[in-house]
Amino acid sequence: MPNIAASKKDFMALQAGIVGLPNVGKSTLFNAVSNSAKAQASNYRFCTIEPNTGLVDVPDERLDKLAGFVKPERIVPTQVAIVDIAGLVRGASKGEGLGNKFLANIREVDAIIHVIRCFEDENILRDEGPINPVGDKEIIDTELQLKDLESVEKKFSRVEKMLKTGDPKIKAEYETLKRCKDHLEQGKSIRELSLSKEERTAIADLFLLTEKSVLYVANVDEASMHTGNKFSEALKAAVAGENAQVIVMNNSIEAQISEMEDPADRELFMEEYKMTEPALSKLIRSVYKLLDLATYFTAGVQEVRAWTIHEGWKAPQAASVIHTDFEKGFIKAEVIAYKDFIQYGSEAAARDAGKLRIEGKDYVVKDGDVMHFRFNV
Ligand SMILES: Nc1ncnc2c1ncn2[C@@H]1O[C@H](COP(=O)(O)OP(=O)(O)OP(=O)(O)O)[C@@H](O)[C@H]1O
Ligand SMILES: [Mg+2]
Fold first, then answer.
1. What CATH code is carried by the domain that includes residue 163?
2. pLDDT digit string (tens) for 162-210?
3. Which family does it belong to (predicted)?
C-alpha cells in the first residue's frame, strides 16, 4: 500500500503530475496514492487549487524477496512524488480557468499522468458533452501544444535576429526551433518528434510541456475495471501511435482500497472485486519506468532498502544517493547481481560462489544490483 512519508523532497524524488480536464477523477487518483496529504475530492470543479504533492512507495517484489532472505529490521522502498494538478479547460493556454497557473504546475513535473474520463455518470459535471475520451485527450494536448508554441516562437524570433552573425551554432539552434515550431503547428507534441542530443539541448531551457513523457489512465466504471470498455478501447486506439501506456482502472475503487487501514478488510474488498493487487501498484511501477529510473539495493540486517538512480549512473554517483560522503570518499563498491543474491540466498554464500564483484569508480550500476560501498571521509 502506498505510504506517504513526511514531505521529504530530495532531488531523487522525481515528480509525476496528474493532468486532465476538470472532474475526470484526478484528485480521486491522488487520494488513492496519498493517505495523509489528502486532496479534496468532490463533485466540484477546481476543488484542487494548489497542487498537492505526495510521496508514494514504489512496489518492487525484488525488495520483498531480498528481505525474505536477509530478514532485516526494516524494509525501505524507494519513492516517487505524485502531484495533483487542477483541471485544465479549453483555452487554458490563453489563461482560461486559471490555465496559466496550472500549466506552470505542469512545467515543474518530470512526467505526466493524463487521466481521461471513461465512465458515464450524469451526476458528475462535464462541460464537453457526451463522454469522449479521444476528444478530451485532444483538448488537453492542444492546450499544452499552444503553450509550447508560445515558448518556441519567443525563442525562435530571438534566434532569428541573431542569424546574421553567421554563427553555425545559432544556425543549428534556429533549425531546431523551426522543426519544433512546424511540428507544434501541425498539432503534434514534441515527444513525438525525434530529436538529436544537440537538438534536445537547444530547447532544454524552454522546459516544454509536450516533451515530457506521458502515460494515460482510462478511468472506467466499476463493471469495466478488468475488461475496459468502449471508451478505454477508443483511447487505446487513438494513442497506439504514440507508444504510450494506457492503464485501465477505476480511480474511485482504488481510493476506497487505499483508505482501508486494516489489511484484512482490504484483502476482502479486493477479493470481492476479483483483484489480485491494487491497479495503483501497477500505475506506480509504470510511472517509475516512465521517469527512466533504475533501482539498486542495499541489504543489511538492519535495513534492506531500494535506492533510485538514473539509467547509466556510475558507482560513485549512485553512492551519493545514500550520502554525499559516500561519493566524496568513494573507494570501491562490492556488487552482487540481484539474481545471484537470490540464487545463493545470502551475501556470504554469493561471495563463496565467486559472485561478489569488486567494482571501481567507472562501474555503471545495473538495475537490481545489490551494493555495498567502501568509502573514507
Ligand atoms: N471511475 C469513476 N466512476 C465514477 N465516479 C468517479 C470515478 N472516478 C472519480 N469519480 C467521481 O468523479 C468526481 C470528480 O472526481 P475528482 O474530484 O477526482 O476530479 P478531478 O479531476 O480532480 O476534478 P478537478 O479538476 O475539479 O480537480 C468525484 O465525485 C469522484 O468521486
Ligand atoms: Mg481535483
1. 1.10.150.300
2. 999 999 999 999 999 999 999 999 999 999 999 999 999 999 999 999 9
3. Belongs to the TRAFAC class OBG-HflX-like GTPase superfamily. OBG GTPase family. YchF/OLA1 subfamily.
Q: Which among 186, 210, 234 is the end of a domain?
A: 210
Supply the DSSP symbol for 296.
E
- Better-predicted residue by pLDDT, 89 or 42: 89
- What's the total number of domains in the chain? 3
DSSP class of residue 88 equals: P
C-alpha cell at 160: 532569428
Residue written as cell 474511485? Answer: 252
Same domain, 320 and 277: no
**Please, which residues have CB within 8 angstroms of residue 364's CB and are 6 or more apart in sequence?**
312, 313, 314, 315
C-alpha span between 279 and 298 (Å, rounded): 28
Among all bound ligands, the one having the nearest atom to the CA of 21 is: 1
Residues 242-298 pLDDT 10s: 888 999 999 999 999 888 888 899 899 999 999 998 898 899 989 988 998 899 999
Q: How far apart are CA 306 and CA 315, in angstroms?
A: 15
Global confidence as pTM: 0.87
Residue labelled with grid coordinates 489512465: 217
In one-letter notation, the amino acid at residue 2 is: P
Q: Give the range of the structural domain holding residue 363, as residue numbers without chain letter.
A: 312-375
Q: Are residues 200 and 341 part of one domain? A: no
**Helix, coil or strand: residue 261:** coil
Does the beta carbon of 27 sit less than 6 angstroms from any atom of ligand 1? yes
Q: Could you tell me whether strands 15-19 and 79-84 are parallel, antiparallel, or unpaired per DSSP bridges?
A: parallel
Is 54 inside a domain boundary?
yes
Closest CA relative to residue 178, chosen from 197, 165, 193: 193
Taking CA atoms only, the protein residue closest to ligand 1 atom 11 is 25
> In the predicted model, what is the mean pLDDT of the chain?
90
Mutate to test the pocket of ligand 1, among 24, 44, 219, 225 (most ligand atoms within 8 A of CB): 24
Residue 20 CA, closest ligand 1 atom number: 21
What are the two backbone dihedrals, phi and then psi, of residue 50, each rounded to the nearest 5 degrees? Answer: -90, 140
Dihedrals phi, psi of 205, to nearest 5 degrees? -70, -10
Selection from 273, 285, 286 nearest residue 246 by Cα = 286
d(CA 224, CA 34) in angstroms, rounded, equals: 24
Amino acid at 236: K
How high is the ipTM of this complex?
0.99
Q: List, in sequence order, every residue forming a beta bridge with 303; answer none if it has no partner.
A: 74
Residue nearest atom 12 of ligand 1, based on CA coordinates:
25
